[in-house]
Amino acid sequence: MKRKAMWLLLMLMLLTVFGPAQAQADVVYESDMILVNKVYGLPWDYEPSDLTEANVAFAEGVVQSRKLMRADAALALEDMFEAALEDGIELLGVSGYRSYYTQKTIYERRLEEMGEKHVSRYNAKPGHSEHQTGLAMDVGCPGYTDLTERFAKTDAYKWLRENAHLYGFIIRYTKDGEEETGYAFEPWHVRYVGDEATAIWESGLTMEAYVERKLRIASGTDRLPRLYERDE
Ligand SMILES: [Zn+2]
C-alpha cells in the first residue's frame, strides 16, 4: 500500500475531536477551497447548506435540481455568464449540484456502459465528485452542450480559459493536469474557488499542486508528506 499523505484529513480529525463536530465539519466542507478528488471525499450525507438555483441560461432539458449551486458560486456564475454575453459569448449551464446518491447512480450506470478504464478518467465515485460540493458547474454553449472535448474548440471555451478566474472559477481538469487531478481534460467543468482563482490561474498549477504548495509554504518545511498520492 502506497503511503497516503493525509494532511487535510488530519485537520478534519482534529476538528472532529475538538468542538461541535458537525458544525466544524461543515466549516471545512464549505470552504471555497475544499479539495475533493480521488483521495479526498465528502460524507454520503453532506449536502451544502445554502444551495440555490443559479439564474443563468441552461441547456434545453436541464432539470431544476441540476441548476443548483452554493449561493456565492451561483452569484459568481451569473456574473460570469453576463460578462461573457457582453463579449458576445453565450454560455449555457448543463449540470451543477449532484447529491451523493445522484453521483452513485451516474457512476454505476457509466461503469456498466463504458467500463472501468473510461470511467476512472471521467466519472467520480460517489463522495468524490466536485459536484457534491455545490461549487462546480458543467457548461457548454449552443451546439456544444454534450460535455465532450470538442467544446475546447469553441470561442466559449477560449473565453472561459482567459476570463473564468476573474469570477472566482477555474477550469479544474486541464489538458496537462491529468496525472495530478486523476481526470482527463474536461474543458466544460468549471469549479468555483473564490478569491484564489486568479492566483491558481496565474500559477498554471492544478488545484492539487497549488494546495500542496500552499501547505508546504504554510508548514515552512519540505518534509510535508505529499498531499496527492502518485506512483513515483
Ligand atoms: Zn463536471
- What structural category arises from helix and sheet content? alpha+beta
End-to-end C-alpha gap: 13 Å
Low-pLDDT sequence parts? 1-7, 10-19
Average pLDDT level: 88
Order of helices and strands: HHEEHEHHEHEHEHH
Helix fraction?
25-40%
Number of domains: 1
Task: List the bound ligands.
Answer: zinc ion
Number of helices: 9
Account of the 3D structure:
- The protein is α+β, with helices and mostly antiparallel strands.
- It has helices at 7-17, 21-29, 71-86, 100-114, 116-122, 155-163, 178-181, 197-203, 207-219, and strands at 51-53, 68-70, 92-95, 136-140, 169-173, 186-192.
- A four-stranded antiparallel β-sheet has the order 3-4-6-5. Strands 1-2 form a two-stranded antiparallel sheet.
- Helix 4 runs antiparallel to helix 5.
- The longest helix has 16 residues, at 71-86.
- The radius of gyration is 17 Å and the shape is globular.
- Zinc ion (ZN) is lined by residues 131, 136, 138, 189.
- Residues 131, 136, 138, 189 line the site of zinc ion.
Structure summary:
With 232 residues, the chain is of the alpha+beta class.
